[in-house]
Structures are given as C-alpha cells and as structure tokens.
Specification:
The chain is α+β, with helices and mostly antiparallel strands. The chain contains eight helices and 16 strands. About 25% of the residues lie in helices and about 25% in strands.
Length: about 300
C-alpha cells in the first residue's frame, strides 16, 4: 500500500462547502485559498533564477521533459505549469512556473516545493536533491530561487511520528502529510492497514484506508475501539463500525472548534469520545446543531 505524495492532490480538495460531519464513509479533506499574485524574486546570488527567468525558459523550453530515478517532469506550455510524476507514473501534482521556488522552513530545516493552483487546493512535495536537480535541468539554471516558508507551518503528530504541512489559515481543515523516507512511508502504510483491518464496515478499500490514515496524521480523525471520530473546523461526527445507531453528527461555527480541541486534550479516557453525551457536556451552551440522519428523520427522534 503506497501513499507517498501522489495522494496530495486528492487530500487537498476543497471542503469549503462543509461536509466534515455526518455520513458513513465520509472523508474530511483539506483546502486552501486562491492566490492570484505574481511576484518577482531578486537575483540576489549568481546562478539563481528569477521568476522572469523561469517563465521565459519554461515557456519556450529546450527540453519538454526530464526524468530521473524517482521523478518525471513534463512541461505544459499552454497552462504554464510543470506536472511532476513519480517513477510509477503516478501524478504528484501541477506546479506553476511562478511557484518553482524552494521554500525553506527555518525551524525544521526542511525544504518544500509548493504550488497554489488557484482552485482551492495546493500541491506540495518535499524538496529533495534529486528533485532540485531535475527542476534546474528543466529550467536551464544552476540554482532555484530560495525563500523563507511563510503562510504554512510544519506540524508533528507525536502519536504517529509523522510531520505534516498545514496552511496557517486552515486550522481544523487538515493538511498534507510529509513523506521523505522509507520509514515515513512504512508508518503511514501501517496506519492505513490498521484502518482497513479494524473498520471493515466503514472502509472498503485501500484508497479509503490511505485517506483515513492521512486524515489522522493531520489531526482530523481519531480512532476508538469501535469507530472513528472526525473533528473539523465546522463540525464533527462519530461513525461506529458495528452499529450505525450509535452514529451522530453536529455542525457548529468555527469559534467552537477551539473548545472541542481543548476538551479532547483534557479527556483522560478516549473511549468517552464515542458518546455524544460526553460532547454535550464539553459544548455546554455553545452554538451547535445536531445533524439528523435519514433514518432518524423517518423515525422522528435521534438515536442518542
């Protein structure tokens, strides 16, 4: 079961319409806002490309593609982007010419390639030496521009032992898992296998298990012995693997999210998170609304 970063585009689809709560087999996926600006980077060091250099070179490239051991880069002149694939031909994403810049995080010493594609999601890859060399070859430059990472935070899920990138405006909306080593991939694979084995009535295939694993790493999902809790910026839900009458869902305003997270962090027995009565106590007089399932509407009352 290989997730790698080819799952990035799928996980970064929009949830702006809010389906974080309710429904069996629902997944909660991350979004980011559109950015339309086109900025130039000063040519501060000999050998570095500017955005203008990159645009001109890739718009009329001497090479339309570059392949290496782990990557294949294909230029799309008409739409001004480079599509990056892995060695198996699985697409990592589209990276616009203006975004072919190394983003450097001072705190973690990690580097990224990030492209905000203007369609409510972004594509991200950790910047390896191999990828850097491939991009330089494609662009005909010796070095890529290098900028401080801003607007994003590198977070760590201590329980799983994996890092993820989150847009600063996307609290409660998940993020993108950072896979850099075989150990990282194995941890994510093992987590996905746990989901597939433990919740067969909620997850039917390996792709669903991969998505659930990524959502746990990025803070959206919590597992219990019998089900899965989903917590998002605008709602939360619980789906039981054995008894759908134990399912429940609510929606709330974004300012309630912090109260939910605080309540979760103070909870000593995570088994309690399955019961809505636990959350009723935590929510108190907060502004929230129960979401009724079709079955509950027909029977005229909530299951719990």
């Amino acid at each position: 079961m290989r997730v790698n970063n080819s799952l990035t585009a799928l996980l970064n689809q929009s949830i702006q319409n809010g389906n974080l709560s309710g429904g069996r087999n629902n997944t909660c996926i991350q979004t980011s806002q559109k950015r339309d600006t086109f900025e130039l980077v000063d040519n501060v060091d000999s050998g570095y490309a500017t955005y203008s250099d990159i645009y001109n070179k890739v718009a009329r490239p001497t090479e339309t593609s570059v392949s290496s051991t782990n990557y294949r880069l294909e230029v799309n002149d008409g739409d001004n982007y480079v599509t990056i694939y892995n060695s198996k031909g699985e697409k990592y994403g589209h990276f616009y010419f203006k975004d072919l810049v190394t983003k450097y995080d001072e705190k973690t010493q990690k580097e990224f390639l990030i492209s905000e594609n203007g369609t409510y999601f972004y594509d991200m890859l950790p910047m390896s030496n191999e990828l850097n060399n491939d991009l330089c070859q494609l662009l005909g430059v010796s070095k890529l521009p290098r900028e401080e990472l801003t607007g994003y935070t590198v977070c760590t899920n201590q329980e799983v032992g994996l890092k993820y990138l989150q847009k600063d405006t996307d609290k409660g909306r998940g993020g993108t898992v950072i896979i850099e080593t075989a150990t990282d991939q194995d941890r994510l694979d093992n987590l996905a296998n746990e989901y597939l084995k433990k919740y067969p009535n909620l997850i039917s295939d390996s792709l669903g298990a991969e998505i659930h694993a990524c959502m746990e790493v990025t803070g959206i999902y919590k597992r219990t012995e019998t089900g899965i809790l989903s917590i998002g910026y605008d709602g939360m839900s619980y789906n039981d693997n054995y008894d759908d009458k134990k399912d429940w869902a609510i929606k709330y305003s974004s300012d309630v999210y912090d109260r939910i997270i605080e309540g979760l962090s103070n909870m000593k027995d995570l088994g309690d998170i399955e019961s809505f009565k636990t959350w009723e106590t935590i929510l108190g007089n907060s502004d929230y609304e129960r979401i009724w399932s079709d079955e509950e509407i027909l029977q005229g009352h909530l299951n719990q």
